[in-house]
Design a protein that fits this description.
Helix content is 75%, strand content 0%. The chain is built from 2 helices and no strands.
């Protein structure tokens, strides 16, 4: 592999790690109530 190939490989791995970190952070059990609240608020009837 050339230097450019290694650079693309490392960049792809870095982007995958960042994406995985964001997913783990966002869907953490401690944040679940705060993340899910807008969904239930949107589905709630305004009459209540």
């Amino acid at each position: 592999m050339t230097g450019g190939g290694w650079a693309y490989l490392l960049f792809t791995v870095a982007l995958g790690a960042v994406f995985a970190g964001i997913v783990v952070f966002y869907f953490d059990r401690r944040r679940r109530d705060r993340v899910e609240a807008p969904k239930y608020r949107m589905l709630k009837d305004d009459d209540e």
